[in-house]
């Protein structure tokens, strides 16, 4: 099958950050405002994630809508895992941050040992895709724990959290453009977009009394879900147009490029 992960373009990163925001605000809305609680919300989202992941694994190429649906659901489940450890089991954010960092390192170690690469440009077998989604899940859980640790336990707040994580992503981007390892910088940015999106989501959704804008979790979730849908439609149209141009280009011209 062909590579099943999209290119890391501006559209990719925009959807990724908004997906993390939805993971933060959507989980809070269902668990707190709807009153489902962390356990019920987590169970529901896990079932939906498994269904979406099964659909994603059946695809033989990158299909935008199912790929990004899986990302959004992974974001919610990753948030729920961290929240359950913190709120229900009393695990400190310091401990959960370290634990998820180690778990992610183990996934990367097993992935590299098996495939000799961690590149998103080579997700063209089922085994590599399973490693990829395991890594994505732990990046969301790690990002949630690290973001909560910075904004809550260390007292940075939402605004400073957005600035700090935004600056770290800018630093990683600079390292990439000056020639640093592209695989390493990709995964660093992927991890950092989670606390950035979560801090931004909290900034928009939380009340002004807590330093937020006061949009509420449902309005913030709907706003970003709409934006994600628009960008996914755009990505689908772009992918279709690219495929059409490839088919219409004579083989001799493609071979000469």
From TrEMBL:
Annotated InterPro entries: DUF347
UniProt keyword list: Membrane, Transmembrane, Transmembrane helix
Superkingdom as given in the UniProt entry: Bacteria
Annotated transmembrane regions: 29-53, 65-85, 91-110, 130-147, 153-177, 184-201, 221-244
Signal sequence segment: none
Record's keyword annotation contains Transmembrane: yes
Protein name: Membrane-anchored protein
